[in-house]
């Protein structure tokens, strides 16, 4: 099946710094979502981005489907950005919408 | 409107007992998914519903796991004869996607299951 790899696995930032999280996938996808899992365990949608670039405030994402990767940019990080960031894909071979998740990037933003 | 809700938020049970976990999707969402999150396995897909039908059960780990959905809305995940390896957070998600399509999935807060 499709493999989803995220890097780095862990990241520590000082408040105000910028960062880039990467998601590589091994096969074609129908869609790709980025999530933030907050310290209470809630998965919060960040982007639905099968291709192209989207921006939402301090966050933006780019997916290059032909090269099988996606990037999540966090600018001017805040302590509330801490948590685990997951990339999840719906494989191109799937006829349902099920998501295959990467292992996540754990981000800690220090004040 | 309201998001996806799940109950109970926490469940502690003894090995060998049966448990039922409930999911209320966002109103109007036809697609419903169950996932589980455990330390060793990360986030894994369990089962997909389109309406009341489950065309993809490929992620259910054993025949002790079953799920149903009624009225195109509420879903129940049942685990029979629970084992310690069933301990995990069980997450439900829903989306507007029609059959065979994919769309943004919205997740509930999860049920944390602990099997003693």
Description:
The complex is a heterodimer of chains A (111) and B (116). By secondary structure, chain A is mainly β. Chain A has a single domain, classed as Immunoglobulin-like, CATH 2.60.40. Helix content of chain A is 0%, strand content 59%. Chain A contains no helices and 11 strands. In chain A, the strands form 2 sheets. In chain A, strands 2, 4, 5, 9, 10 and 11 form a 6-stranded mixed sheet that branches. Chain A is globular. Chain A starts with a strand and ends with a strand. Chain B has 116 residues and is mainly β. Chain B has a single domain, classed as Immunoglobulins (Immunoglobulin-like, Sandwich), CATH 2.60.40. Chain B has no helices and 11 strands. In chain B, the strands form 2 sheets. In chain B, strands 2, 4, 5, 6, 9, 10 and 11 form a 7-stranded mixed sheet that branches. In chain B, a hairpin with a 3-residue loop joins β4 and β5. Chain B starts with a strand and ends with a strand. The mean pLDDT of chain B is 93. At the A-B interface, β4, β5, β9 and β10 of A face β4, β5, β9 and β10 of B.
